[in-house]
Design goal:
Helix content is 23%, strand content 27%. The chain has 662 residues and is an alpha/beta fold. It has four domains: 233 residues, Alpha-Beta Barrel (TIM Barrel); 114 residues, no CATH class; 95 residues, Thrombin, subunit H (Beta Barrel); 100 residues, no CATH class.
Length: 662
């Protein structure tokens, strides 16, 4: 990818979703292979990925495969074999977390640093670039100023080996710094760093202060709203980001179609404004629907920390989809409820999902079995829920109703919803031997076909040229669209439709072959030699070193003390099970910095620990106010500790003693 190109990077749970991501404007798609991806149930066969690769490369789009779990020693060889299989399938890059992969015989394929590598500083970003990573996804918690500082640290954008900056612009937010959450493993033995997170962050908690007083009851205080950077794209570009990543390898087809199309439209608007920038792939998209992020599952939206710390980033009431307000209840019957809709043009459908907040502010959902318009012009509707009306808690007159599933929208995206076409110029020339059709696409590739034989004069000279142009413009079965058709003939000519169709098909096939022949794999970056030193000389369990090859990597880069990953069960006491930029004290207006200068309060508010309680699970919140971070502290359960660790590795726990000179 060139420094002036912008890449829209979409997720795919499977190859079919990946193909639709390409059709809806993705310049690249990331997908899980048959193993070692950080989404345990989003695996795909190499054969399916090869099918996706073939489709993507028709548009010069790229396919990246996640190989981003931390690996046991006995998994390194299977991972190596898989990497070669993916390389042979035409995959463009591997997304990795485990640095042990850099110490084994990988194919000459480009390597990208996963979000799990937790890139928050210019020093770490520069190190990964110097170690041979070509694209690095930055922590979601960074501000525009921090992104710009990292961009500056990587050097000139056109320098050889210069890494591309990638940033999440949409989707679910993990509350922890990526790669820095161990709650799931401590409580269940399921490691987030190995693709099996139990999502403790989405649970409700009782929050108690240091004196045992309840600060919040049954609140999802670790649950974030969803990321949406739609309004910040220009500033993110100016900060140095060139790859715009959509979260969602667990998401369905409708989500990927809609959100990819949404950001395609926004990025294309920017490209129109800024001709010095360009798309990273070929073709333009036409959508048969209006992209709208609010239509998909979301926990409401936040732009997180891009513009600095914000008060309202959490989805504390519910981790579910609250939907859009559409009206309120006017009457509740034994089998139905009547609604007054806010916008009279809104239409309800059988199968729509509605929801509301009960008196405890818990989200309650109901599905419409049958919807009837009482007076559609006035926005009055009667709905019959799928479940008994009596089963819905606190459903009463004046209750606000939201819609979180619009079946008309869902059905629309189940159909073909986009066209992606590459512009092409066609030229039909008369030669001494017959006709030659030359097709040149917007990327400069050409295809050609010839029709030998003598030509017939047209019986209707006035319509001859029009008919030839109309016939040659029929590219509907191809990935191309005609930009212009030029005729270079010695007079009005008649060509039978069957012969012209065959000529056109042959020329377009030759053009596709020419495009395929010029496809080149992204180059693998060469690590700096001698190996540059890692920014620190001591690594704790937070570095996620889980095999001896990873240990060798860090030792080769100057690290003296290397602890094993948390999953090795060396940390038996209380440790930080999660590190996050999110601060519960700040969100609950209990931050000491918020209290400064308030008469009668200054000096009385301290960042004392809080406790989170969910059933028998107890966690302690400790606050590091200098970097403005929160640590969720706990210890590994005896039941998990008693089980055999996934990889019982042990590394240096103390600094090696230097030998005295003889």
């Amino acid at each position: 990818m060139l420094p002036h190109q912008l890449e829209l990077l979409a997720p795919a749970r499977d190859a079919d979703i990946g193909i639709e991501a390409i059709n809806h404007g993705a310049d690249a798609v990331y997908i899980g292979g048959p193993g070692f991806g950080a989404r345990a149930t989003a695996d795909n066969s190499v054969q399916d990925i090869a099918r996706l690769v073939r489709h993507a490369h028709r548009y010069n789009s790229r396919i990246f495969v996640t190989l981003n779990t931390i690996l046991r020693d006995d998994e390194l060889e299977p991972a190596r074999k898989l990497a070669w299989q993916l390389y042979d399938a035409g995959v463009d890059a591997l997304i990795i977390q485990d640095m042990g992969l850099l110490e084994i015989d990988l194919p000459p394929i480009q390597l990208h640093a996963s979000t799990q590598t937790d890139i928050r500083t210019p020093e770490k970003a520069r190190f990964l670039q110097d170690a041979g990573l070509s694209q690095i996804v930055l922590a979601r918690e960074l501000t525009l100023q921090q992104i710009a500082a990292i961009d500056a640290a990587l050097g000139p954008k056109d320098a050889p080996g210069r890494a591309i900056l990638e940033f999440f612009v949409h989707g679910a937010l993990c509350v922890a710094y990526s790669g820095q959450c161990y709650i799931s493993h401590a409580h269940t033995g399921r490691s987030a760093n190995r693709g099996d997170c139990s999502q403790a962050c989405r649970l409700p908690y009782e929050v108690k202060d240091s004196q045992g007083r309840i600060v919040a009851h049954d609140k999802h205080v670790l649950s974030m709203k969803d990321n949406n950077q739609s309004n910040n794209l220009r500033q993110i570009i100016d900060a140095g980001v060139r790859s715009f990543k959509i979260e969602g390898r667990y998401k369905d087809m409708a989500y990927v179609k809609n959100i990819t199309a949404h950001y395609r439209v926004l990025l294309d608007e920017i490209l129109q404004e800024r001709p010095e920038l360009a798309r990273a792939s070929s073709g333009e998209c036409t959508f048969h629907f209006q992209p709208d992020p609010d239509q998909n599952f979301n926990r409401e939206f936040t732009d997180y920390f891009v513009n600095g710390r914000q008060q309202d980033i959490g989805a504390f009431d519910t981790p579910k989809n609250p939907g859009r307000p559409i009206g309120y209840v006017t009457a509740v019957g034994t089998q139905h409820l009547d609604l007054q809709l806010d916008e009279h043009g809104t239409v309800l459908h059988n199968g729509d999902g509605l929801c509301y907040l009960d008196l405890q502010k818990e989200l309650v959902g109901l599905q419409i079995n049958r919807a009837e318009a009482i007076d559609a012009k006035q926005g009055r509707w009667r709905v019959y829920p799928k479940d008994p009306v009596a089963s819905f808690k606190d459903l009463r007159k004046h209750t606000q109703i939201n819609r979180n599933r619009d079946m008309d929208w869902v059905r629309g995206l189940e159909k073909k919803s986009a066209e992606r076409r590459i512009g092409a110029w066609l030229r039909l020339s008369e030669t001494a031997d017959g006709l030659t059709l030359t097709v040149t696409d917007e990327d400069g590739h050409s295809g050609r076909a010839t029709l030998p034989g003598s030509l017939q004069d047209a019986k209707d000279p006035g319509q001859a040229a029009t008919r030839l142009r109309e016939n040659l413009s029929r590219l509907g079965e191809t990935i191309f669209q005609p930009l212009d058709v030029t005729l270079q003939l010695n007079g009005p000519r008649f060509v039978p439709a069957s012969q012209l169709n065959a000529l056109r098909r042959e020329a377009m096939a030759d053009l596709e072959a020419a495009r395929a022949a010029t496809w080149t794999r992204l180059p693998r970056a060469t690590p700096v030699t001698p190996p540059v030193p890692y920014p620190e000389d001591t690594l704790s369990y937070l570095a996620n070193v889980f095999n001896h090859k990873a240990r060798d990597f860090y030792a080769r880069h100057g690290v003296k003390v290397i602890a094993a990953a948390y999953e090795s069960h060396e940390e038996e006491g209380e440790v930080s099970l999660m590190i996050t930029k999110h601060c519960v004290r700040f969100s609950l207006s209990l931050c000491p910095k918020q209290a400064k200068g308030v008469t009668g309060v200054q000096g009385t508010v301290r960042a004392e620990p809080l406790q989170l309680i969910n059933g028998k699970e107890k966690l302690t919140l400790r606050f590091d106010c200098k970097p403005c971070e929160m640590h969720v502290v706990g210890k590994i359960k005896r039941s998990v500790l008693g089980a055999a660790p996934a990889s019982p590795v042990r590394f240096y726990r103390t600094r090696p003693q230097a030998h005295a000179p003889r």
